[in-house]
Design goal:
By secondary structure, the protein is an all-alpha fold. The protein folds into three domains: about 220 residues, no CATH class; about 210 residues, no CATH class; about 100 residues, no CATH class. About 85% of the residues lie in helices and about 0% in strands. Helix 2 packs antiparallel against helix 10, helix 4 packs parallel to helix 7 and helix 5 packs antiparallel against helix 6. It starts with a helix and ends with a helix.
Length: about 550
């Protein structure tokens, strides 16, 4: 029985249209990506305008005032939003509308209670923080105003999770766009009319409050209108039991990141840190692809049960394969073109940035081993403690290494830690999934995608080294040659097959205007696949 026949038999048995589920998830991923690109660009422009209006000193004060808010946000999310995505996705598939409404109500109530408490705590601690910790009395009023945004941020984030669970990615993207527009407009206007840092803080807080109010209205009409379900203790226990390992994981990872920054500030020169920050700014390019894919995998996997749905294996392996087809070449391309990209964007003063950029995105290559899919898979099956153990393993390795490598090697030491210390955790997750779920990634498929991307990398690398050309021309030629080489190597290496082309055409075909643009490319790939198959027969 071949692959498609086996899947179809399982689908008929379980009355679940896997193709439609995958297509809907892929479409949602693209919608998220478009929304993320637009909102990120708008926020970036708004931040640049705000920074220029305030000046470096006032912009620094604004940044410091946001530190207590950022810390409190770590304690304000008990894993509730992940629980909402998991169980809403599951109960929607099981057509348990009443349970869905209970979950939404309970999740919102938990987040309201916790973040209201944190808002009051931050408000009353603002004077102590500003005078005793930061030694900047003017921060007092700024922290007080910022504390009012904690509840709004929590409700906005909960709403985004609910939209994801309901497969309404357009609401998710519109929410981010609304917030980015409001913040990028209100804060600069208040600064221009004379309110300075105070106005920038008020503008940010108002943007969260307005966006959260809109989100709650949408959530009400989407799921709670006419609801008469009462809150139940069992639903509360279910959410907390699922979420607390994720909460602890976030504390561990978030606390470690703060330690890294603290050590950098002590041992590394400001100019080197500036080069490092410039490199991190480029990670947004990979994030445009990685974040939407990772976001939709959680609700996609939540529609299946590893104990009874055999098709979860095919969904998981397909998610890893298609994520790799996009992300591995994108990462390889950014690595080989790092130098001309940095020089074009920043000029020649950021000499360390290309190398920092190359090191900072190496971890993305491991999506071919399931680095983004496995955590989403485990969370979707309620195995949040396994992810917590994985993060604890990373923490136990990264903490002592950071105390040695960062003081001695600076940014290179930090980036080496993020690469090396995370691999035992990944190996643990791969082995755990194989032992407990009975399946793993398609090693052959992942290796072929990696080899195809590596060969394309080498071709571009040799061209750029042999022929010294201007940076902008290097980018144009490099991107064109890389795409062509990768497109040819994929079918030649049999990393992609005709059924993959059909799946991709079906996904893109549901996206309207994007479909005609992709048809020529898919025809080109199909012709290469047929040619490769004919050669192998001969």
């Amino acid at each position: 029985m071949n692959y498609l026949t086996g899947v179809l038999m399982l689908l008929l048995k379980n009355r679940l249209n896997l193709a439609d589920v995958a297509k809907q998830s892929a479409k949602g991923s693209i919608i998220l990506m478009l929304g993320q690109v637009l909102s990120t660009v708008i926020l970036a422009l708004g931040s640049i305008i705000l920074a220029r209006l305030l000046g470096s000193a006032n912009y620094g004060i604004l940044t410091v005032a946001n530190i207590p808010i950022s810390v409190m946000l770590l304690f304000g999310e008990l894993g509730v939003n992940s629980a909402l995505v998991k169980y809403i996705s599951q109960y929607r598939l099981e057509e348990k509308a009443g349970e869905v409404r209970k979950l939404v109500k309970t999740g919102l109530v938990i987040n309201v209670l916790i973040n209201t408490l944190l808002s009051f705590l931050t408000f009353f601690l603002s004077e102590f923080l500003s005078e005793k910790i930061f030694h900047e009395p003017q921060l007092n009023i700024l922290i007080k105003i910022g504390s009012l945004s904690l509840l709004a941020q929590a409700l906005m984030t909960s709403s985004l999770s609910i939209f994801i669970a309901f497969d309404r990615m357009e609401f998710h993207s519109l929410t981010n766009l609304t917030f980015s527009i409001l913040k990028s407009v209100i804060s600069p206007i208040l600064v221009v009319v004379g309110y300075g840092v105070f106005g920038a803080t008020v503008g940010s807080t108002l943007s969260y409050i307005v966006t959260a109010s809109i989100c709650l209205s949408v959530v009400w009409f989407l799921t709670l209108r006419g609801s008469d379900e009462r809150l139940e203790l069992e639903t509360f226990k279910k959410i907390i039991h699922f979420g607390y390992p994720l909460f602890l994981s976030n504390l561990i990872v978030g606390g470690l990141a703060q330690l890294f920054n603290f050590l950098l500030a002590i041992y590394v020169e400001a100019s080197v840190i500036g080069n490092y920050q410039a490199a991190l700014n480029f990670s947004v390019l990979i994030g445009f692809i990685l974040t939407p894919i990772t976001t939709v995998l959680f609700p996609l996997f939540s529609k299946f049960d590893a104990k009874r749905d055999d098709e979860l294996e095919f969904v998981f392996q397909g998610a890893v394969k298609y994520s790799s087809i996009l992300l591995v070449p994108a990462t390889m391309g950014l690595i080989v073109l790092a130098e001309p990209i940095v020089r074009v964007i920043y000029g020649g003063t950021y000499q360390l940035t290309p190398f920092f950029l190359q090191l900072s995105i190496i971890n993305t290559l491991f999506v071919s081993l399931g680095s983004n899919a496995i955590p989403a898979l485990l969370n979707s099956q309620g195995k949040t403690k396994v992810n917590f153990i994985s993060n604890l393993l990373y923490f136990s390795l990264a903490l002592p290494l950071s105390l040695v490598l960062i003081p001695k090697f600076g940014v290179i030491g930090l980036l080496s830690i993020t690469i090396l210390a995370s691999k035992p955790s990944l190996i643990y997750l791969i082995l755990w999934v194989r032992r407990n779920f009975g399946f793993t990634i398609e090693w052959r498929s992942s290796s072929k995608i990696f080899i195809s991307s590596s060969l394309a990398f080498l071709i571009v690398y040799m061209i750029l080294r042999i022929f010294p050309i201007p940076d902008i021309l290097s980018l144009v030629i490099g991107i064109g040659v890389f795409l062509l080489a990768y497109s040819v190597l994929l079918p030649l290496m049999r990393a992609i097959e005709s059924k993959d082309i059909q799946n991709l055409k079906g996904i893109i075909g549901s996206l309207g205007p994007l479909a005609p643009l992709s048809n020529t490319y898919f025809k080109f790939l199909s012709k290469l696949i047929r040619t490769s198959n004919q050669d192998s027969v001969k």
